[in-house]
Amino acid sequence: MAGEHVLVCVAWPYANGPLHLGHVAGCYLPPDITARFERSLGNRVLMVSGSDEHGTPITVTAEIEGVSPQEIVDRFHAINTQALIDLGCIWEPNIDPRGVEYGGALFNRTSDPSHISRVQENVKSLYSSGLFEQRTMEQYYEVRENGNGRFLPDRYVEGNCPSCNAEGARGDQCDSCGTTYEAAELVNPKSKMNPDAKIEIRPTEHLFYRLDLFQSLLEKHAEDRWPVWKNNVRAMTKQWLDMGLRPRAVTRDLEWGVPLPFDNEEFDGKCVYVWFEAVQGYLTCAQIWSERIGSSHPDGINSWKNWWCVDEEGQSPRHLYFLGKDNIPFHTVIWPALIMGLNMAMNGLDSPRLPQAGDLHLEDNVPAMEYLMLAGGQFSKSRKHAIWVPSFLERFDPDTLRYVLTINMPEGHDTDFNWSDFVEKVNTELIAAYGNFVHRIMTLAARLPSENGSSPLIPFEDLSLNVQHTKKLEELHSAITDSLKRHRYKEALRTTMSAAQYGNQMIQAAAPWAHLSPDKEGEERNSSLSTLAFGWRIVRFLSIVTQPFIPFSAQRLWSMIGQSGEVTEAHWDSAIDWTIPMTWSGEDPQPLFQRLDLDEILAGEGIVADEHVDQDGPSTHSVKGSSRSKKDGGPVTDEPEGVTFLEFDQFLAVDIRIGKIISVDDHPDADRLYVVNIDDGSESGRTVCAGLKDYYKPSDMTGLNVAFVANLKPRKLRGVMSEGMMLAADDGEGGVCLLTVDSRIKPGSEVR
Ligand SMILES: [Zn+2]
């Protein structure tokens, strides 16, 4: 069977609150992009995750709200599942549209009875293999009036920090000074939920997993994976292994969890520690998926083994784990130790080994993310400093979020989300660069006569005239593929967008709008229109390669150019198959995205604009034509339809002057901007940032005498002060031209 088996494992979110943008950027978008990409390569992808519904985070939320834990997890499992689907993550349908042997996805929950019984079976077999050791621990116990009571998990105990004496320190750690300690060291301990209750320390029996037995195997395993792991994954794993592994407690005195499966009074009222249980979800979820799809897969309920086990020839499926940086050691140390323990139990071995034929496979890559911050601070569920996904998606196109979070993905370091950056990226990158290119091609093509509904570009297609462009697109395709394989999502998306920029420049140079009329027949027309026809090829290319990132607009584009079916069914490599017959939908071209208005958004968020728009505000005022015209799509909310009259004094207030362009450089920090130096007649000259990259090469601008607005309030654009605005004409179809005068007039002259 062709197609590699790829298991995409996604960190399990706690079902005690809605997901926020930080979760999405760190844990949920990267695996979705990867799963979509791997599918389009023809691979067999099974994606697994679900709600983590046990443990104290859930019970604390329930006790605070005064409802049952079940009510909490039911509510947030439903909300989060829907949010991920609304965001376009491929959790539905559960079976890959190409067929069940291609896999699918399951967003399960740890309260699933099948998960619970499988975890219990696993715990029993690890126990019989001697992988647990029993120890007595000292723990706080809340004594009730009637003589009953309960053991208190660390989150349920508060007191004064033994180190800094801060109040409200938790049972195991002080949030004020960061010190960790044994619960018994806490000063003046109280039950958090029941501060008047008497509490005392009592002995309690717990099971510890023998991590120490796996030390050398884990070192060997980490060494094998070293070349593909990211720096943060290497560093955290090494830190844990260097400290030396010790047995780790895997049970708790808590009712809300998977009960320990032993007929032994000592273990009554105890459950499997939530991290030890939820992490097994990666395995149980795959097993439950194949249980549910049942006989439809040729391998029936054992089909999960295709994604989990080393085969008889020693070939392994590929395992990718997606999580935030706080979770790295659980996935590179504890989980592999648990998997090797299960392999040991399954094979009846006396000691663990690295996986062999028939065994469960260990993780290959763990492209863990750093954090996405919110306006400079850390997202926090508990402190409610967050933007929640469901409310975001009520107001915005999911692709805008997917785009901005990907281009800002916290891959190598923490990154920041703020509204002005969101608006700027949507308006200038998604709309002005990408959307504009697509719209140019479609509207120009629509002006050519179409016969019987076939593409009007077909008569002009001549690839021999476009060799340089095919070569460029093939290069870009290979670069995007390479970046995605290495989990460099930002880089991949940036390269994808550069294909649209390239297309804009290509069309600008070919100027097809000058050759649309049939009475201009000739070689020059053929060449120009063959470039326009190649523009259609780039649009199709973009539809396929943007699909993993912004799937909704990719599909809109796919239909707009008359391609049938779903873009998700197109093979990744068909983006550069120049022999695909050219299609045409005949529909009026529609803008792909709606323009956003920062002031409106901030007002909706209850934020005063001036507080939050720093000097890095939107740069749309750099070129008049590209910022406010209808072609970019969406209504311009702050201008009325039709003509707006201007008072004469208002007109006089605009100081338009002539200047000579001295130099043009790339903006150091904004892909779409030039930094233009203008001789304005003054000694120092002036600097203007301009979004003209799609229309002019620097060498074509240098020396031009241009008109500019001289008294526009200076504004910093991504760190460069822009002192004015050059005037340009825009024909609404992609032609943008600077207003120039000849050299008889000297720099600094006023325009009246
Ligand atoms: Zn402290």
Protein architecture, described:
This protein is an alpha+beta fold and 752 residues long. It contains 22 helices and 25 strands. Strands 19-18-17-20-23 form a 5-stranded antiparallel beta sheet. A hairpin with a 2-residue loop joins strand 21 (715-717) and strand 22 (720-722). It is globular. Residues 608-643 have low confidence and may be disordered. The structure holds zinc ion. Zinc ion binds next to loops.
For the largest beta sheet, what order do the strands appear in spatially? 19-18-17-20-23
Rg, alpha carbons: 31 Å
Amount of beta strand: 15-25%
- Tell me the number of helical segments per DSSP (H or I, 4 or more residues long): 22
Brief account:
The protein has 22 helices and 25 strands. With 752 residues, it is an alpha+beta fold.
How are the SSEs placed, and which strands pair?
Elements (H helix, E strand, L loop, with lengths): L4 E6 L10 H20 L3 E8 L4 H10 L3 H18 L16 E7 L3 H16 L3 E12 L5 E3 L5 E4 L8 E2 L16 E5 L6 E12 L5 H11 L5 H13 L4 E2 L1 E2 L18 E2 L1 H5 L2 H13 L11 H4 L9 E5 L5 H19 L25 E3 L2 E2 L10 H7 L2 H10 L7 E3 L1 H28 L20 H19 L3 H22 L12 H24 L4 H10 L37 H8 L3 H4 L11 H5 L19 H6 L2 E11 L7 E6 L6 E5 L7 H4 L3 E5 L5 E3 L2 E3 L2 E2 L1 E3 L5 E3 L14
Parallel strand pairs: 1-2, 1-13, 2-3, 14-16
Antiparallel strand pairs: 4-5, 4-9, 6-7, 6-8, 9-10, 11-12, 14-15, 17-18, 17-20, 18-19, 20-23, 21-22, 24-25
Helix pairs in contact: 2-3, 4-8, 4-10, 5-6, 6-10, 12-13, 13-15, 13-16, 14-15, 14-16, 15-16, 16-17
